[in-house]
Amino acid sequence: MVLLENDAFLTELTRLFQKCRTSGSVVITLKKYDGRTKPVPRKGHPETFEPVDNKCLIRASEGKKKISTVVSTKEVIKFQMAYSNLLRAHMDGLKKKDKKSKSKKTKATQ
Questions:
Q1: Domain 2-37+49-76 listed as CATH 3.90.226.10
Q2: Residue 32 contacts residue 51 (beta carbons within 8 Å)
């Protein structure tokens, strides 16, 4: 997993989308990130860890290639605008639904 800066993540994500345009898929996940690198212990003495700043961890993967970035609250608006424009530009390869299912329903009701 490669942790990138926000701008580098967006450019690499663009490359992943272009690579998967004909075949393949890109999986994107988002989750809250508190800055911990070690897991929380289940039993014993739970640490009271208060994050200073809320952050978001964004991961993208295509096959064996994995990239990630951490977005802080100060950069969320800027990143969100660039990310949404990127998704709009590369979501044109989606398949359309079949119209056959609609005609089957109308025949069944007649």
A1: no
A2: no
Q: Which residues pair with 59 in a beta bridge?
A: 29, 68
Q: Taking the domains of the chain in order of start, what are their residue ranges?
A: 2-37+49-76
Are the CB atoms for 67 and 49 separated by under 8 Å?
no
**Locate tokens 């998967």: which residue?**
20
Q: Report pLDDT digits (tens) over 46-83.
A: 666 666 788 999 999 998 999 999 999 999 999 999 99
**Beta pairing, strands 55-62 & 65-72:** antiparallel
How confident is the model at residue 1, as a pLDDT? 78
Q: What is the pLDDT of residue 62?
A: 92
Instruction: Please report where in the chains the tokens 């044109």 appear, as a residue.
Output: 92
pTM of the model: 0.73
What pairing do the DSSP bridges indicate for beta strands 65-72 and 2-3?
parallel
